Amino acid sequence: MRHAFPAPFLLAALCCMPALAQPAPQAPRDLRPTRDVTVTYALNGGADVYMSQSWDARGKRLRMTTAGEPGWMLIDFGRSKAYMVVDRTRRFITQPERSATPDPLSLPPDARLTRVGNGRVANQPCTDWRVDSVQLAATLCITADNVMVRMVQQRTDGEARLEARSVSFAPADPARFRVPDGYREVTR
Fold this sequence. Notes:
- The protein has 188 residues and is mainly beta.
- The protein has a single domain (29-169), classed as Lipoprotein localisation LolA/LolB/LppX (outer membrane lipoprotein receptor (LolB), chain A, Clam).
- Helix content is 5%, strand content 43%.
- It is built from one helix and twelve strands; from the N terminus they run αββββββββββββ.
């Protein structure tokens, strides 16, 4: 025998069902975003932009600019090279071997991550992860796109906070992720 339920009853039953549980986010292995992004950060709650990072997901390239520095850094992960570029003098320095340079998108090898909550930074929902390692004791808030939007680091001299002020997922302009034509390389 077949039971028929009126459509309004089925609709009401479906609406009242508990939502399916969302899977818990996995702890990130690194801080490489999954898509193009530009993030501006402020330091210790300041209003001024301290640092800007742009990520080219396809080319695996990172461009970083820090306030007060004469130039900007370009890290090409695909080619394992880093460049320090100074626009004012139209010069750059190439660092061919990246093994000696700290990778700003890697977590320490001994890092243990523990999920400690959720947050919202620069209008982006994020998951808070406590990071414990010999090199780093911090809480990172990381979006579903693997973008770090907040870092609160516990240091011997107090707390340091790097927090996103803006996040843009606009497509990366490839020209911003290379040394401009006509710039002269400085060798040591």
